[in-house]
Specification:
elongated, 8 helices, 0% strand, HTH_TetR (chains A, B, C, D), Homeodomain-like_sf (chains A, B, C, D), 219 residues, DNA-binding (chains A, B, C, D), Arc Repressor Mutant, subunit A, mainly alpha, DNA-binding, homotetramer
DNA sequence: GATGAATGAGGTTTCATTCAT
DNA sequence: TATGAATGAAACCTCATTCAT
């Protein structure tokens, strides 16, 4: 999943201007890992620098050597996720076969991909969503980056479907793809809550796939 | 649900067991109002008891006379919203005419209703979502209450549509309605972010309505 | 020395807007007293909120209830000093008899007054001087207030002396009075260092008085 | 005093005992220069080792190779100033002509010298004064060194003037010279604050010169 | 009912300082 | 010689929370 050189998620050193060397980069990585890990078990607003540092086997002071605050660390994590995850989702849409006979299977794969990605990064995505809702533009851009790859690919697919006559000509590809991605993202985010209501992952996946295939290929 | 008496959103006095009189209820209301107001301009995790109290023209000590903590106040607000908003959304679906010729117009009204409700209570709904995502069951139940009325009504409508032969017989009404409500809620929540991308409220409403009508009445 | 009502040196409550009541004012006073006391034995830059609070028999949190930071407390002290001390010094000059036969005695009293005031408030005056030198205008104004009463009085006296023919007509009263006050303030501030060099307080007082009398009354 | 070799203000290496070579001395010089520079724009108590080091293009660790702490660097700077400045001021007094016809002109030069020196080293002199006031004997000695040359020279001049009959025989040369130097130093230090009050540099210089000439040569 | 006042508790942040390289 | 990196230690400052009035 992307060879991502160690400095991909790095801006420069915070405290002073120096670019960190190998040891420093490793520390930074450990801090990011701890942040990510802690986020799984802790509410965003309960994340503490002390805890992150301890979990990374270092001291708060060291944390501040690499990040001005927790938000910055989250931003770095979000950046990585937007890159990796965004590409992954886009590929699922783009490399799938959407012609009527295969559309439903492809749609299943896409739905599955969303569910899986959210499953794996639930907490971080939650932070991104929250910050976006609160108006933070840096996070909003990352969120857009995460979703837009698939959305654009979907839009192109829809345009193709319209041209092929599978979809009515008054279809609005941009709006439709946007709404579909919203649906995928939201269901993926709230899957747990829904599961409680008699819909397990497979059920959800198929329901999503049906709407998706239907909307994109009228199948 | 809820006899709508003035104390509907009230539990009893916290500190002592006394039931608040008129003056007390007024204070409580002011505190709730301030909380709601502050929430518009402040991130959840930045809400402070002092600020709420001061905004309500009273003191922190007084806040604690009515709520054990900020979460409790938010819960009270969420409770009211779930009641009012839930009924409102359910009515929109239930009282609409979903037979093919009218389905699209009804769908537009429903979509509009979601967008409007979220517009008006963005911040509070954000808190509800966040808490739900973080696993808080009290908020999850309120969230369900907010969404389930419309979801159930939609489900019944879909069942009717299947029976009427408008929708294929292998349709899964529960999953489909769930997904559709997800879509509505998510788009409503992120409308602003989407508006930035060339989709204004009307556009979004129509795109939503199309999918909705299509899914429910094959129109 | 000025009955100074208890709120003379008070701005309003810091944390919230409320005006402190009697108990609060007392606490505030204790904090100021501790600050002043500690300043005697501690360098300005080594003053800590914790220490001040402890010395006042309260907690740091309480300190912040009354002052945003240490500087604010010092400013309050300086304000009081400027008021009280400024009036005192002015009176010494103004109420003295500067006609030739008495000028020297009056000058002695003035010099003595400076030495005494600085002796009693050495540390605080040091802070005022330092802040002034560093360009802080709030402190500079207070410093001016402390010195200008006497300076102005002196200036008027000099004008009178010129008119009376005791001083040459090309005397510049403003500059002369300014310089004389500088001399008094500086010697008062550094008296200890000078004492080390064979000049005790009496010696200094007389040396100052001589220059003073000479400059003001040509005696 | 001081053979003015390049290492005059240097003690030996701190960390190890090694005597610094040329490169080392250059680094040390850069650190001193940065300290001096930063002092212009920063309050003493806000000087940080990190900032000094970074400003010198090196690291904190390197700073500690040459100075045990910031105070040591300031002491080194003060030492240089006391040497250079002290000699300069003394020469002004000593090499001037104080006989009645020339006294005023000489006095003007002396006053000008003080104003200029303080103008150029305001911040450092401020530190020296502060430390002196706070009882630090190392700084007090340097301060004395800075001022005593001129003071002693003045004292000798006064003695001469008494002998010549220009001044009354009961004059106390030591006290008088001390007070005069105080006046010069203080006005020089606070010149800016005074300028605000309608006294520009020239005005001040002349007012100082008048008192000086008058006190030393009865002119 | 309401609230001045006080504070324990705890996280944040900053630095001086050290060491291994 | 120089310096990345790390951190102990200490202040700072903020809040939720509690009483006594």
């Amino acid at each position: 999943m992307a060879t991502a050189d160690p400095a991909s998620s790095a801006s420069l050193r915070a405290v002073d201007g120096r670019v960190p060397g190998q040891r420093g980069r490793a520390t930074r990585q450990r801090l990011l890992a701890s942040t990510s890990e802690l986020l799984e078990s802790t509410a965003y607003r309960d994340l503490k620098v002390v805890d992150i540092a301890r979990a990374a086997g270092t001291s708060p002071a060291t944390f501040y050597q690499y990040f001005p605050d927790i938000e910055a660390a989250l931003l770095a994590l979000a950046h990585d996720l937007a890159d990796t995850g965004g590409r992954e989702l886009r590929d699922l849409v783009e490399q799938g076969e959407w012609s009527p006979p295969h559309a439903y299977t492809t749609a299943q794969r896409v739905a599955e991909g969303y569910l899986a990605l959210w499953e794996q990064h639930r907490a971080l995505i939650g932070v991104i969503d929250l910050a976006t809702l609160e108006g933070d533009s840096r996070f909003r851009e990352l969120r857009t980056e995460l979703l837009s790859g698939a959305s654009d690919a979907l839009q192109r697919t829809i345009v193709g479907a319209v041209d092929a006559g599978w979809l009515p000509s008054d279809t609005d590809p941009r709006a439709l793809s946007g709404v579909l991605v919203s649906m995928l993202a939201h269901v993926a985010a709230h899957r747990r809550g829904m599961s409680g209501h008699g819909m397990d992952a497979t059920h959800l996946r198929d329901a999503l796939a049906r709407i998706l295939a239907w909307s994109v290929a009228a199948v």
